[in-house]
């Protein structure tokens, strides 16, 4: 059976529209970061983002007796620039003329692949956070409170986000179901549908892409930036040797830590 997109005169326009819509939707639906809700997304049309980091400034107390000769410029330090380079995250598939595959399904697969590659890169970049706190295995709810106290103690006052591995998310939900954390709407939500929600003032999410010794990360939104040169899109081209249509999905973006002190790594202790 011929592919439906080619049923009437090889309708490549219909193929493109269906595949693109599914690709974009799947990528943004599956990604924790492309929407900009966790980490700010900044336009980078040239593929390079420079984020200035203002140096810390300490106020000087001046009195009428001691103000003579005080040079305020002497307490300033030079600003620095954090440079984020955009990479390309791409996936490719072939929609054959005689296949019976919906272009939307191809788009879904491509979108998922691109979002996985990008989210994995974002989580890898989080290793650039400098502070860390240790916890026994399995993770405890107390460890989250300790991490928040560490961030707040360093002067962070903004909203906090958190990501933990799927295994540690399960451990946290089990802990919330114990007598020590019993009762209340939060426990009910966790037990009913597995939604982590907000713990210790942290909007907490889970990701299967967290591996290794890090159990997760807690950070302020301004700890990182995502540079966006070109959001998720597709290209199609005829591929005669495959008797079908090439479909390539791509995302041109980069990610980097711009203030390494505004987050904490949750480290596993054996």
3D structure, described in words:
By secondary structure, the protein is of the alpha/beta class. The chain has a single domain (4-50, 75-269), classed as phage-related protein like fold (Alpha-Beta Complex), CATH 3.90.1690. It contains five helices and twelve strands. It has helices at residues 12-30, 103-125, 141-153, 166-176, 184-193; strands spanning 41-43, 48-53, 80-85, 87-96, 131-136, 160-165, 198-199, 202-207, 214-220, 224-239, 244-257, 263-269. The protein has a six-stranded mixed β-sheet with strand order 5-12-9-6-8-7. It is flat and about 85 Å long. Residues 5-9 and 190-194 have low confidence and may be disordered.
Please describe the topology of this protein.
Elements: H1 12-30, E1 41-43, E2 48-53, E3 80-85, E4 87-96, H2 103-125, E5 131-136, H3 141-153, E6 160-165, H4 166-176, H5 184-193, E7 198-199, E8 202-207, E9 214-220, E10 224-239, E11 244-257, E12 263-269
Parallel strand pairs: 1-10, 5-12, 6-8
Antiparallel strand pairs: 2-3, 4-11, 6-9, 7-8, 9-12, 10-11
